[in-house]
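1st attempt posting a full record on here, be nice pls
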Amino acid sequence: MIKKRLDRYLVFMCTCLFTVSIAGSRPLIPLYAKQLGAENIHIGVIIALFSMLPLLLSVKTGTVIDYIGVKKPLIFSIVIGSISMLILSISRDYIGIYISQIFAGFAHLVFVLSIQSYAGHFSKNKLREYYIAIFSIAVASGSFAGPVISGFLTDTISYSYAFLVLGLIILIALPLSWLFHEIQIKAPKSIEPHEKAEKAFRLLQDSHLRKAILISSLVLLVKDAYIAFFPLLAAEKGVSTSVIGVIISLNAAAGILIRSILPWIVQRYKRKMIIIISIIMAGIIYMINPFVDHVIWLCILGFILGFCSGIGQPLSIFVTIIALPKDRIAEGLGLRLMFNKVTQVVAPLSLGAVSGVVGMSGVFYLCGAVILAGGIQPCKSLFYKKYKR
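the predicted structure (as tokens):
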């Protein structure tokens, strides 16, 4: 019982501290690049760099974590994440931003796979769902605090000081990560390198896993496009960096609230209906954003969008874990993250290029159209019937 209680607090604290740093830096990156003179298409490339290594290494990283356990990768991710912030604090050019985003993206991949794998190795489904819920709430909490802290520090002092503080915050999780007990995992059967990718992709033969991954990628588009491009849209409207941070934090606060009441909602309504409605609402909000100039309405729209994006992530993580063999959980989660990273690479590159022609408003119209198309697309089944409540 003591170990379980300790695990619960460790998962929450490490995830929250790590997310404060990463989430706090994400809205600052496009604004910082803009200050250095970057065009929108260049900013799209910078944002895409965050997901470049995870796109290439997600499955392999998951396989390694399944083999060596979660503790060492967790410590590694915290150290690399801190270094990525410190690079930004001392850099004054694009090279520093490039290196930082590559480091931060890989650190984020390793951290998320480690924590989710830790949660997924509990034998009981209720414990798995419980720890995934703790992870999701911690992510939302960190995503709320991070932009507020970074926005305030940037407006009152400087970008460099904000990145320095974020780099130090993430280091607080380092001693906590040593307290995790190592999970004993059986050594996998040796296979040839060319067979590893094929073996991982065989997991996609499960239709429920495929649908969970597709929903996850769509929800990620809702969340990440907002964090990446809303600061630029708001800056065009004359909104200050600290206020932009508050709006993005309200978006994250809605994620905390929806995650806390999601079990109650799922008990009363079908998961399929909940997800489709949330995606359609998100698409509509994207289309409305360019028409709104008042800060209060921008806050309201951001808050509602947080509700929408906060629904799909925990549900898709849980159904992904349920669909996977116990000795391949991190590998399967890595496969899910790989498809997520495809979205995170393709979206900013294409949207950054489009923004040069249609502007930031056009980016939000295009995102809204894509999200609406994904939500309206009929879907026969998203989750196992036997796991419906």
